[in-house]
Specification:
This protein is an alpha+beta fold and 127 residues long. The chain is built from two helices and six strands.
């Protein structure tokens, strides 16, 4: 499998680390991960945005492990934020979790299904 990051030089300047587009060739499997919520396996919703974001990412990673994949396999993810005020904190946690990985991404500000959840994260992974 080959993954190529695409950032067109005649598009807008990137101020954050992510890829504008991802090309995948020779992949044998694709996994679509439903929106993962900030709830631990024992049903606890963490306090505060950063801890909720880490929990949602932990749930994404759990789904990846179940599919014999990891964070390196993510080619696209979407984060749904309950409030624009979480934008900077979201970016910091995403960088903490993903490190140097730069999948394509979208962040959408919207109402979240449960009023206790501050975000939800979905992902697409290939292998």
């Amino acid at each position: 499998m080959n993954i190529r990051k695409i950032n067109a030089p005649d598009s807008h300047d990137l101020k954050s680390k992510y890829s504008q587009a991802i090309e995948v060739t020779d992949a044998k499997r694709t996994v679509y991960i439903s929106g993962q919520i900030p709830v631990s396996p024992d049903g606890i919703v963490p306090e505060g945005f950063s801890d909720q974001a880490r929990q949602a990412w932990a749930n994404v990673e759990a789904q990846l492990r179940a599919a014999d994949m990891g964070l390196d396999n993510i080619v696209k993810h979407t984060t749904f934020l309950g409030d624009r005020a979480y934008r900077a904190e979201n970016s910091l946690v995403r960088k903490e979790i993903l490190g140097e990985r730069e999948p394509a991404l979208t962040v959408i500000v919207c109402e979240i299904f449960d009023e206790n959840w501050l975000l939800e994260i979905e992902a697409i992974a290939v292998a």
